[in-house]
Amino acid sequence: MPRSALAARLAVVALLISASSVVSPPESASADQGDGLRPITDAQGRTLILRGLNTAGSAKGPSGLPWIERRNVVGERQKLGSNVVRYLVQWKNVEPSPGRYDDRYLDAVAQRVAWYREQGINVVLDMHQDIYGPAACEGSGNGAPAWATFTDGLPCTPQNPWVLTYLQPAVLRAYDNFWNNTGKHPELMRHYAAMWKHVAARFAEDPAVLGYDLMNEPFGGTRQFGFFEGPVLTPFYQRIVTAIRQVDRQKWVFVEPQALGVNEGLGTALGQIRDPRARAALGRLVGQRDRLTATGLARLSDPSSRLVLTAHFYPGGVDIGGGYTGLLKSLVQAEFVLWRKNMTEAARRLNTPLWVGEIGAMAFDQPGAADYTRDWLSMADQLRIGWAYWSNDPQADGSTETIAPLDRTGDLTEVGKIVARPFPRAVAGTPTKIAYNSGTFTLTWRTRPGTSGPTEIWLPATVYPGTPKVTASDRAHRWDPARRVLSVWNDPAHATHTVTVTPS
């Protein structure tokens, strides 16, 4: 959801006060902030910098399917260089009645996933929910089916702004029953885990599906922060990960902290989640090590789990529609500092990569919108992490689009002209610097053992209309104008690598 945290309007002043001593523009933050974060990797061991769109807010409707056609996916790859999509699905469409799964719905999802596969775009399936589900409050919400919604007869009136609907008695009770805070419905979380196992079994062999985002912006009902994330959300995720690994041991699993407060920069109390895939592999390696010790061949690396911390970033100052100027800009810059500090610390603590599952959603009729967009793009570059922009939904009434990067015809919008920015799709090693300024793009990386294939850098036609000028420490490089991808092969004589690209 584009503006999800109930506390945003209440926490703005508190965030300003708490961060006032560290306020600084995002560009001034240390370029080493991302060091120590584990990478998301592909089959060749390359670091994936996953950048693309959320598809789509329209999928929150009754059908659970987005508005897109194949040509829109082609446009994302050509105009934005997208190498990932966060594709929304809904529990109510997957499991319309208890234990009965709608495989025709999953077939329709698979058809659209194939469009992304054709374009070489990775898919993260996101089990989306807002305000629990449509049965929790008539006229609001998406996600959970009616049969899994227990409001105990409490009332609900949709609110404006819509996020305040989370505080309605029926919605709070629906969440409390799902999380079994009431002690009355332990079966609901079991159903949810079994539903995810079914989805994972359906897509386990689909090469386009990179992974699974287990729940969009979890909300704890009457339990929040440390009373929710540690004792409730963490074991819930563990249950789902364990279920998924019974049918799919390869794909990445994306876990989100609670949205409330964390979206604006507060820390998360999410606990350690164990990947059964990694434990099983470690057991095999330990056995190999014991057998090989006598021969002196016992240097074996511990296998990595495939879990990703997936945080969202919606600063409160932007969230309340005040723009990105003056005092509000200072507030939002404080939230930049808090978010990057707390989320990178959490990813290190949990030993996971960090990915921004939702970011953006600032209408360009707000003052400072262009500067805000450039600043969060620069923050992602400094951290060497990826993101999924919210969202690709163009306005239905045909008016000028101010949020989506592409309109329905596939042309770049005002925000799209900024988001269409050079970036490394895959890095043959560990990236140490990603920087872009006024047409000059610079990437540096270190060689990492076990990595093969070239580093691939996407370059937009809006910045590099002709053949780009390339200066590289590695002589082997090739420009593909059709894909708009610059490929650079590591020189084995060098441990570090640099490439700089400017317009010709």
Automatic annotation (TrEMBL):
Q: Which UniProt keywords apply?
A: Glycosidase, Hydrolase, Signal
Q: Which Pfam families does the entry mention? A: Cellulase, Glyco_hydro_5_C
Q: Where is the Glycoside hydrolase family domain?
A: 42-394
Which InterPro entries does the protein's record reference? GH (IPR017853), GH5_C (IPR041036), Glyco_hydro_5 (IPR001547), Glyco_hydro_5_CS (IPR018087), Glyco_hydro_b (IPR013780), Glycosphingolipid_Hydrolases (IPR052066)
Keyword Signal listed? The answer is yes
Signal peptide boundaries: 1-25
Extract the PROSITE patterns matched here. GLYCOSYL_HYDROL_F5
Top-rank taxon, per record: Bacteria
Q: Which segments constitute the Glycoside hydrolase family 5 C-terminal domain?
A: 421-501
Keyword Signal among UniProt keywords: yes
Q: Which family does it belong to?
A: Belongs to the glycosyl hydrolase 5 (cellulase A) family.
* Name of the protein in question: Cellulase family glycosylhydrolase
Q: Which organism is it from?
A: Actinomadura gamaensis
